[in-house]
Write a structure and sequence with these properties.
The structure holds two protein chains of two kinds. By secondary structure, chain A is an alpha/beta fold. Chain A has a single domain, classed as Rossmann fold (3-Layer(aba) Sandwich). Chain A contains seven helices and eight strands, in the order βαβαβαβααβαβαββ. An eight-stranded parallel beta sheet of chain A has the order 3-2-4-1-5-6-7-8, sandwiched between helices. In chain A, strand 2 (28-32), helix 2 and strand 3 form a beta-alpha-beta unit. In chain A, helix 6 (127-141) crosses helix 7. By secondary structure, chain B is α/β, with parallel strands linked by helices. Chain B is built from twelve helices and 14 strands. In chain B, helix 4 links the parallel strand 4 (74-78) and strand 5 (100-106). The radius of gyration of chain B is 21 Å and the shape is globular. Chain B starts with a strand and ends with a helix. Classes of the chains: A alpha/beta, B alpha/beta. Chains A and B meet through loops of A and strand 1, helix 2, helix 7, strand 8 and helix 9 of B.
């Protein structure tokens, strides 16, 4: 099974990807972000190690060298792992590298391409805007989004109203794009019915 | 009231600039500020503004000079090495008395350095943003909300005094995400009768320039500018105090580091150490009075920075060297931890207890 996580910058792709990978111990997570060197999958190594997830990241990830280099082959990784989660960079810009593997991914019947969305982000605040970004991502890689992960949150200020509002907007996004809802998320500390709890957050290094 | 949105510091700053009436943004990509350019490229065309990815940082700052000359609110952004490149243009802007906003989302240096957060451009921002006698207004946000709020204030203050303003942020603030709320209304922009916006044969033509043909005139302009700076020092210094009323140790830090120090002050207070925090919000003008007022209880000062101690001298001058000013810093993209700062506070507390 291959799960590809795409979405707008800051929509929560890496935390959602890490969370999904952690639910299947023994899985592999691939850090494919070639756009932004800050707050990436590789920063979650301690969490991933603790959950038995193998991290594959570019050799320059978490160094001072800011170059878009992927020094690994997705095909080899996916062929040798039972379950692979691929975490892409943001927007269409971050999705372009996936285009190289379009024919490989299209030929397999166990690939899901998910679109992470947070309706409390300025440029995807409305379903119509989120749909626009989603189509830009599809055009960048030539693959169709198969599911929506609604990750609407306001960081530590998330409450049930915000989750509820996100669910309504995600359903509207699903209606206008035809992509199904894969999951609605809820942050640790808030239990909301029928949501996927996300228990990992990026550390801002400010000590609370 | 507008809803709160979850934003990166870079995005919040860009959105706030647009709402403050910024019509021209000129930039060039560099980590960790690239989101400002990326955001502007998406938003500016939708609000009737201009986004240009210039061919270089030098080109971008000179485009700001052009737009500001016409009286338009203009902005550029970069990170440390890119700001070095802009320095010549910044001096020209100051010499021509042009308001604008320059954003520096600092990274580790010197040289190409690294991409992780730093505060090592304090001197560059407050002392030497280019050649010649001049100062910049320098604002140091500490939260994503302040990245937005101070962007607006920077434009307003720059226009008020006809000075370039700098937002001195760092990679942490640029990249981290926090909830932000934007105000519903903004102060009207002042008239700019000096702007080169077309005289339409109804007035004398305006000249925006930093070249003076006779030295007497150049000296006169420098003296007039420094008289204006005295007003700025009196009126515009901003700082935030935290638990300083009875503080025996005053810790001072700006930007993201102030939040780490705040955590350390809380930990110190829990141990009975009387620590307090002064956070300068404007680095120029430096909020001298806040430090001086704290002399009544303070036995020692400690400056915590992500550099090798660039703010220490300003603190010493503010208190006329009447107390020891200690320093703790990390550099090169390393971020101090609250525990490290607490260790410093314990050591200073032990020392002052003996005095």
């Amino acid at each position: 099974m291959i799960t590809i996580i795409t979405g707008h910058y800051g929509s929560g792709k890496s935390t959602v990807a890490a969370n999904l990978a952690a639910k299947s111990p023994g899985s592999v997570i691939v850090d494919m972000d070639t756009v932004n060197p800050y707050y990436r999958t590789a920063d979650l190594k301690i969490y991933l190690d603790a959950h038995g997830v193998r991290l594959v990241a570019p050799m320059y990830a978490r160094t001072n060298l800011d170059v878009p280099v992927l020094d690994f082959d997705i095909v080899t990784i996916c062929d040798s792992a039972e379950n692979t989660v691929i975490d892409m960079g943001g927007d269409d810009a971050g999705t372009y590298p996936l285009g190289k593997y379009r024919s490989y991914l299209s030929a397999r019947d166990d690939v899901q391409m998910l679109y992470t969305v947070n309706f409390r982000r300025m440029l995807t605040a409305e379903p119509s805007q989120a749909a626009e970004v989603m189509h830009e991502i599809e055009n960048a890689c030539g693959l169709r989004i198969t599911g929506i992960i609604n990750n609407t949150n306001l960081g530590e200020a998330t409450d049930e109203d915000i989750i509820r509002e996100g669910i309504a907007k995600a359903e509207e996004l699903s209606r206008i794009t035809g992509a199904g809802i894969y999951a609605h998320t809820s942050p640790a500390g808030i239990s909301y019915p029928d949501t996927l709890p996300v228990d990992v957050i990026m550390d801002n290094r400010l000590g609370g | 009231m507008e809803e709160r949105m979850l934003m990166k510091g870079n995005e919040a700053l860009a959105e706030a600039a647009i709402r403050a009436g910024c019509k021209c943004y000129f930039g060039y990509p560099i980590t960790p500020q690239t989101e400002i350019a990326a955001y502007m490229s998406k938003r500016m065309p939708k609000v009737g503004g201009v986004f240009i990815q210039a061919e270089s940082e030098i080109a971008a700052i000179n485009m700001v000079y052009g737009a500001a000359s016409a009286g338009v609110r203009a902005m550029t952004s970069s990170s440390s090495p890119g700001i070095s490149l802009k320095s010549e243009g910044i001096s020209y802007l100051a010499g021509a008395d042009l308001p604008c906003v320059i954003v520096n989302v600092e990274r580790g240096g010197p040289g190409l350095g690294g991409i992780q957060p730093s505060q090592s451009d304090y001197y560059l921002a407050t002392k030497a943003g280019g050649h010649g006698d001049f100062s910049l207004l320098v604002f140091a946000p500490s939260t994503v909300q302040e990245m937005a709020d101070l962007a607006v204030k920077a434009f307003d203050t720059a226009d008020k005094y006809r000075m370039p303003a700098m937002i001195l942020a760092d990679g942490l603030l640029g990249q981290m995400m926090e909830p932000v709320r934007f105000p519903e209304s903004y102060a009207p922009q002042p008239e700019k009768p000096w702007a080169c916006s077309g005289h339409a044969n109804k007035r004398e033509h305006n000249i925006v320039n930093s070249l003076y043909l006779v030295p007497e005139e150049l000296e006169k302009s420098n003296i007039a500018r420094f008289e204006r700076y005295e007003t700025v020092k009196r009126e515009e210094a901003l700082s935030e105090n935290y638990l300083t009323d009875d503080a025996q140790i005053i810790v001072t830090a700006f930007g993201a580091t102030a939040r780490i120090v705040r955590s350390a002050v809380n930990m110190a207070r829990a141990e009975g150490i009387k620590a307090g925090l002064i956070r300068p919000v404007t680095l120029w003008p430096f909020p001298v009075k806040a430090y001086r007022d704290a002399l009544s209880t303070a036995k020692a000062y400690l400056s915590v920075e992500m550099n090798m101690g660039q703010m220490v001298n300003d603190v010493k001058l503010a208190i006329d060297c009447k107390r020891p000013v200690h320093f703790f810093g990390r550099t090169g993209g390393m971020v101090p931890t609250p525990a490290e700062v607490l260790a410093q506070l314990r050591a200073i507390n032990e020392q002052t207890g003996k005095d």
